[in-house]
């Protein structure tokens, strides 16, 4: 149960937090200037825009199967070094890149091993990051814990259960199986602060992403019950703000093109 069409709505949900992770991710990669980058599953352009701003690339190519997301990226990133195309990970061609990256996408690719092998074939350094769905991505963790109490029969929708490989060990195993060398991982933690409960809750109503799409599928009474349980559980400061954190796990490896 996924929905990926509106870039603007997705930005208000998790796109903005991905941008914070992207900065730490690129600092960790520490790549030289003047390289050709491929951003697989570029979405709204969170990672691509950060590459353009901080990594001094020669070129950034972003590909994503969502025409709506690609349109958003094209409309918000005005840089001659960047181009965006509607393509999936299964449609990667033979063009070679110095660095192939992917942010918050690997868990949504049906054939992850095939995608990683394609990245291995066309890239030098390959690196990805995913949310720590089972624990450290608090805005989602709180939601799914509440949803499980209201609708226990739907517990298999929880992203923490659906994507158990989104751990350092799981990512390292995937990269090693795909043939990468020098595989390393790290965690990246960023603050996710909401000025009010409504600021936290409203993005879930947009239908973009797994949790919002699931919420939209429920009866209004169940949606209200989840909302009320979250309002009760979330830690609220005296000014009404809610301070959470989001943890992502990143992995990188050296591909055949770099040997």
Percent of residues in β-strands? 15-25%
Q: Major sheet: size, sense and barrel closure?
A: 7 strands, mixed
Mean pLDDT: 91
Count of domain modules: 1
Q: Total helix count? A: 10
Question: Strand sequence of the main sheet, in spatial order?
Answer: 3-2-1-4-5-7-6
Radius of gyration: 18 Å
Helix and strand composition category: alpha/beta
- Please write the string of helix (H) and strand (E) elements: HEHEHEEHEHHHEHHHE
Uncertain parts = 1-6
Keywords: Methyltransferase, Transferase
Pfam families: Methyltransf_11 (PF08241)
GO molecular function, one term: methyltransferase activity
Protein name: Class I SAM-dependent methyltransferase
Kindly describe this structure.
The protein is of the alpha/beta class and 259 residues long. It has a single domain (7-258), classed as Vaccinia Virus protein VP39 (Rossmann fold, 3-Layer(aba) Sandwich), CATH 3.40.50. The chain is 41% helix and 23% strand. It is built from 10 helices and 7 strands. It has helices at 7-29, 46-54, 67-76, 112-122, 138-150, 159-162, 168-177, 197-201, 210-217, 220-233; strands at residues 36-40, 59-64, 82-86, 97-103, 123-131, 181-194, 242-254. A 7-stranded mixed beta sheet has the order 3-2-1-4-5-7-6, with helices on both faces. The longest helix has 23 residues, at 7-29. The relative contact order is 0.18.
What is the strand and helix layout of this fold?
Layout: H1 7-29, E1 36-40, H2 46-54, E2 59-64, H3 67-76, E3 82-86, E4 97-103, H4 112-122, E5 123-131, H5 138-150, H6 159-162, H7 168-177, E6 181-194, H8 197-201, H9 210-217, H10 220-233, E7 242-254
Parallel strand pairs: 1-2, 1-4, 2-3, 4-5
Antiparallel strand pairs: 5-7, 6-7
Helix pairs in contact: 1-2, 5-10
